[in-house]
Amino acid sequence: MAEKDMNAEIRKLQDDFSTLRGDVSEMMTLLREMGAERVEEAKESANDSLQASRERLRRQAASLRTRGRETVDDLEDTIEGNPLGSVALAFGIGFVVAKLLDLGGRR
């Protein structure tokens, strides 16, 4: 009788271990799936951030191009409005730069 009880207990333990093994396997599968989902979420978040940064850079580049064109247009208007003054200014700047470079060579 004691042997039957012991065998029954052993079978019950074996069944419990089998159930536990199945539960652990199921938990591992769920953890892998959760990890894969989190990785996918992180990828999507990084991609969204990258797209937002690209768009922000595009807008800034367009703004800089526009401001550059406006500056060049303003400079051209100034030169066209006062060509003699522009030539004199360019000559003066060139003269100062030449003197600075010449002083550097004499030392």
TrEMBL record:
Protein name per UniProt: DUF883 domain-containing protein
Family matches, as InterPro entries: YqjD/ElaB
Lineage start: Bacteria, Pseudomonadati, Pseudomonadota, Gammaproteobacteria, Chromatiales
Chain ranges passing through the membrane: none
Species annotation: Thioflavicoccus mobilis 8321
PANTHER family xrefs: INNER MEMBRANE PROTEIN, INNER MEMBRANE PROTEIN-RELATED
Coiled coil: none
GO MF annotations, alphabetized: ribosome binding
Spans annotated as Disordered: 41-69
